């Protein structure tokens, strides 16, 4: 960058002696420390830590025999080190390491051979410290570098550079920030020292390929770990591999060659002086020569770069670009020869002290400009960045502060002069917000647009993506003649993920109008790799399809999984075979959607039955085994389709519906839903022959089979749907099987569909379907149905039916006669099984001294209930039979002769039985009256002489029970009101009574009512209630309350 014009911008304010508290301090040995502190060595105070806002500085005082020589502080941790000269120590020299907050020093002794005696004597000793104080170094005998590693208890490492050392700079390896590295310079060379992370030993000492070394203070470290070296007026940039190259940047090259000319053109518009024009012409010639020199220099640099070692190439290209193409060497020519350089973020501070140029300047390299300057440049002792400023400490202990001005206002003024590169450089160096930087790019783009430099304008607009509204740019380039520029901007939106559907539509419309088929081909190739699309794929497919790029749209839709759109376009071209092949590669959800919309067209397209059956089999497999999609990942799971969604596909292909249902039922019947089974019933009509219909119906609709039932016993199809369909088709066999289902039992309809001669057989006890066990109404309905049909047949003169019906009626009356004869036995047996046994059985007592037999007969209202009285007449009452038979006047009464005989015989038998029961009941009542009289008016004689429990002789006090057992009072225990021997049996009897009472008495929940109905001792009744299994928890609580009251009484 020779003959560079450095434009000056005053971006810094310079203030001399800005801090009153720091004036007149002894700053001959000072350093800045972590936490915004300034450390220096006072003549009587030791090491002092202060800053402009501290009232009482912290101090590390020296002892009487100690003299502090120099201090150095870590920049990232609160650690520091001070060199100490002692008059009492055996070696006379050591270090103190300490925390800058606690100020508790730890002595670090130095082996005698490593004491820098010469530097101590002349006061030139300097301690070089890395940021976290894991390493520090100093110069020994001017040519040797002594390096100590934490925890500083081992022998130091020594590197002999053979020439006087001028600079020592600690930094970190850019490729591994955890690794410490160090640059050491002499006047002739640069040495790179690299520490290993395992044992902290120097494992590599590299001589950096360079044209020479660096003088004192003429090298500095950048944040990325590279070193800047100044020789004369030229600044070069190095890393461990040698000098670095700039990445090739056309913008930067254009700016270097033409940028300054643009600024001078502006000055030309303002001042038309002829002399300036002549000077500018001369400068243009010089710049042409400079351009030729640069091209030559770039070639030489490229050849030199190829000859550099591999380490240099790797690091240079990795850090500054991977294009394989680089620009010139990273070197910059200043406008003078500095005596000190210092890197301050994104700019270089250089100190000049020439007779006619004593100045501090801050250089920015791209674009080349000077951000600030301060005078003078002599008498400088120390430079550091602290307190949001650049601090310059001079030899007279005075301080100069260089601070930034208000950047926003300054940059806006620069933008008004259209010095956009300078504005961008300043904004980047000052870390302005992205929104502010975007504003600069927008202003620059607007300027280019006004000058009709549309290619440059669109590049700048791309830099504003994410901050500037896209419509602002699109409206400026919406005209067809700007389509190329608009495409570039829209692609920029896609690259940054900021495009929407409208942008995609506009972009692909531009592609099709401009015939950019190479871009379309690129997008298709990317889609084949299944890379995420930076645009809205659905919109792109739609635009391409409407623009006549059908193959491209199909390819995009297929590769990006727009299966519905892909099928739609194929359906428009009637490529149904291709749709079928595509269905084999996608998931269940997409298969379902496509088949629901295009399945009917697909199956109608297949003229060959084999193809149609293959498609039907594929749909069945999707329902049973899952869709055979391409599994991209190991954890992908095949999903099954719902067969209900495929039924409409076979609307015009009933035979394929039959095949579809057959596939499902044979392969995996559990996937068949109610809709499928309903459709299966409907498929029966597609069989023309009656035998085939019956075979199919019996195959899938065997109502006793588990195939058509859920786990809870419910049928998988809907009864109403089946009933309606079978009736509409008048399918007799199906209806008859349907009506006798357990959950239907339409026996009246079943009888109507049966032949007349078959009806009597249904009521036989040997018939497999127990119709005869149903209600009396069905017997009555069957008889009335046969007689009514006989009457109708007589009216029609159908002799064949008359004969058949007459014979069927005769058989049915015979069955009624048999049922009448058996009805008495069945009714009695059923009745006595339901009645509590203790009501009709004797209470058995095993003692021979029982005073009398106690038999409790049921009451008449308990024995014969109204419902049971009706059932004694058989399935149909005799009078009802006579009424039905009388419907046909020609039926002979001889048909019911046997029935009448059985009826009269049963009535006589029943009457005798009732008379016998009445007599027995009267006798029992008389016995009960006698017993009651004896208990009331006669005495009770206890015949027992021994206790039933202990078999001892009965003596007073004793207890005698009516059951004939006697006990000592002490043998009865707590309950003296209950016979121990009979207690368990009595409890069983009472619990049976309680259960019977609970069934027929709604007031069972009332304990007092239960006691009254039981007829036994109340305490015993209550205790029996608690021990019974007929009480709920809430009822038990009531019983306990009543029991407590009776116990108190």
Automatic annotation (TrEMBL):
One GO term describing the cellular component: endosome
The residue spans of each CHCR repeat are: 461-608
Give the PROSITE patterns listed for this entry.
Answer: CHCR (PS50236)
For the keyword Cell inner membrane, the answer is no
Q: Which InterPro entries match?
A: CHCR_PEP5_VPS11, Clathrin_H-chain/VPS_repeat
GO terms of biological process kind: endosome organization; intracellular protein transport; organelle fusion; vacuole organization; vesicle docking involved in exocytosis
Q: Where in the cell is it found?
A: Endomembrane system
What keyword terms does UniProt attach to this protein? Membrane, Metal-binding, Zinc, Zinc-finger
According to UniProt, the name of this protein is RING-type domain-containing protein
């Amino acid at each position: 960058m020779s003959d560079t014009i450095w434009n000056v911008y005053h971006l810094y304010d310079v203030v001399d002696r800005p801090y009153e508290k720091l004036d007149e301090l002894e700053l001959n040995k000072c350093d800045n420390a972590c936490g915004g502190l300034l450390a220096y060595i006072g003549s009587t105070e030791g090491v002092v830590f202060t800053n402009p806002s501290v009232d009482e500085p912290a101090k590390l005082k020296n002892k009487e025999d100690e003299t502090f020589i120099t201090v150095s502080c870590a920049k990232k941790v609160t650690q520091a080190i001070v060199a100490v000269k002692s008059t009492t120590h055996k070696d006379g020299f050591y270090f103190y390491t300490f925390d800058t907050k606690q100020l508790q020093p730890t002595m670090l002794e130095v082996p005698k051979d490593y004491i820098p005696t010469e530097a101590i004597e002349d006061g030139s000793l300097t301690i070089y410290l890395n940021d976290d104080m894991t390493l520090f170094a100093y110069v020994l005998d001017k040519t040797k570098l002594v390096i100590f590693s934490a925890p500083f208890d081992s022998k130091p490492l020594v590197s002999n550079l053979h020439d006087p050392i001028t600079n020592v700079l600690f930094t970190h390896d850019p490729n591994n920030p955890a690794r410490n590295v160090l640059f050491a310079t002499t006047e002739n060379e640069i040495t790179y020292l690299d520490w290993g992370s395992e044992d902290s030993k120097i494992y590599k000492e590299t001589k950096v390929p360079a044209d020479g070394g660096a003088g004192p203070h003429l090298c500095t470290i950048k944040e990325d770990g590279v070193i800047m070296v100044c020789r004369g007026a030229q600044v070069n940039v190095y890393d461990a591999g040698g000098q670095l190259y700039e990445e090739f940047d056309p913008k930067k090259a254009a700016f270097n060659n033409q940028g300054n000319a643009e600024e001078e053109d502006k000055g030309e518009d303002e001042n038309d002086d002829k002399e300036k024009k002549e000077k500018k012409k001369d400068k243009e010639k010089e710049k042409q020569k400079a351009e030729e020199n640069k091209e030559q220099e770039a070639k030489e640099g490229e050849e030199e770069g190829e000859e550099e070692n591999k380490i240099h190439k790797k690091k240079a290209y990795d850090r500054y670009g991977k294009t394989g193409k680089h620009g010139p060497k990273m070197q910059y020519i200043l406008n003078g020869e500095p005596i000190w350089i210092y890197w301050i973020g994104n700019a270089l501070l250089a100190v000049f002290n020439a007779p006619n140029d004593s100045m501090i300047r801050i250089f920015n390299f791209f674009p080349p400009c000077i951000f600030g300057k301060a005078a003078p440049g002599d008498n400088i002792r120390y430079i550091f960045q602290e307190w949001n400023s650049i601090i310059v400490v001079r030899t007279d202990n005075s301080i100069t502060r260089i601070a930034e001005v208000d950047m926003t206002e300054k940059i806006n003024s620069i933008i008004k002069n259209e010095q956009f590169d300078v504005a961008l450089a300043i904004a980047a160096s000052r870390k302005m917000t992205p929104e502010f930087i975007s504003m600069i790019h927008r202003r620059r783009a607007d300027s280019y647009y006004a000058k009709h430099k549309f290619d440059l304008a669109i590049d700048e607009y791309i830099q504003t993506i994410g901050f500037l509204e896209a419509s602002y740019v699109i409206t400026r380039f919406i005209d067809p003649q700007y389509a190329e520029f608009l495409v570039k901007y829209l692609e920029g939106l896609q690259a940054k993920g900021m495009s929407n559907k409208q942008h995609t539509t506009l972009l692909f419309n531009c592609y099709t109008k401009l015939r950019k088929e190479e871009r379309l081909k690129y997008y298709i190739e990317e889609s084949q790799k299944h890379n995420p699309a930076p645009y809205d794929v659905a919109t792109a497919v739609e635009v391409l399809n409407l623009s006549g790029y059908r193959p491209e749209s199909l390819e995009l839709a297929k590769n990006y999984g727009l299966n519905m759109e892909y099928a739609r376009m194929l359906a428009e071209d009637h490529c149904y075979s291709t749709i079928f092949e595509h269905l084999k590669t996608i998931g269940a959800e997409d298969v379902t959607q496509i088949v629901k919309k295009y399945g009917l067209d697909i199956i109608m397209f297949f003229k060959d039955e084999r193809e149609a059956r293959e498609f039907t089999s594929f749909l069945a497999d999707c329902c049973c085994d899952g869709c055979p999609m391409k599994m991209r990942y190991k954890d992908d799971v095949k999903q099954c389709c719902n067969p209900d969604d495929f039924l409409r596909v076979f609307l015009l292909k009933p035979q394929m519906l039959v095949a579809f249902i057959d596939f499902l039922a044979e392969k995996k019947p559990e996937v068949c839903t109610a809709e499928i089974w309903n459709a299966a019933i409907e498929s029966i009509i597609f069989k023309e022959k009656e035998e085939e219909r019956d075979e199919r119906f019996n195959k899938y609709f065997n109502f006793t089979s588990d195939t058509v039932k859920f786990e809870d016993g419910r049928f998988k199809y809907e009864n109403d749907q089946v009933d309606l369909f079978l009736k509409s088709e008048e399918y007799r066999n199906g209806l008859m099987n349907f009506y006798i289902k357990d959950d239907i039992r339409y026996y009246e309809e079943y009888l109507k569909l049966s032949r007349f001669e078959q009806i009597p057989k249904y009521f036989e006890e040997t018939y497999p379907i127990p119709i005869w066990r149903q209600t009396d109404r069905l017997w009555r309905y069957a008889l009335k149905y046969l007689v009514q049909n006989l009457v109708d047949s007589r009216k029609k003169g159908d002799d064949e039916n008359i004969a058949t019906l007459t014979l069927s009626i005769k058989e049915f009356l015979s069955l009624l006669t048999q049922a009448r004869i058996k009805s008495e036995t069945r009714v009695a047996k059923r009745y006595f099984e339901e009645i509590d046994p203790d009501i009709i059985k004797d209470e058995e007592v095993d003692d021979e001294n029982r005073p009398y037999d106690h038999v409790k007969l049921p009451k008449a209202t308990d024995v014969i209930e109204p419902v049971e009285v009706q059932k004694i007449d058989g399935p149909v009452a005799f009078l009802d039979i006579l009424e039905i038979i009388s419907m046909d006047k020609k039926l002979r009464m001889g048909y019911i002769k046997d029935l009448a005989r059985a009826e009269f015989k049963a009535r006589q038998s029943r009457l005798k039985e009732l008379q016998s029961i009445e007599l027995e009941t009267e006798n029992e009542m008389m016995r009960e009256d006698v017993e009651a009289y004896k208990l009331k008016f006669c005495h009770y004689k206890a015949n027992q002489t021994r206790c039933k429990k202990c078999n001892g002789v009965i003596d007073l006090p004793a207890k005698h029970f009516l059951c004939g057992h006697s006990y000592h009072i002490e043998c009865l225990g707590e309950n003296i009101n209950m016979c121990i021997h009979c207690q368990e049996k009595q409890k069983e009897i009472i619990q049976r009574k309680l259960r019977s009472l609970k069934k027929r008495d709604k007031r069972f929940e009332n304990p007092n009512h239960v006691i009254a109905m039981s007829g036994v001792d109340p305490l015993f009744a209550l205790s029996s209630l608690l021990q019974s299994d007929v009480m709920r928890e809430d009822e038990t609580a009531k019983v306990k309350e009543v029991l407590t009251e009776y116990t108190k009484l």
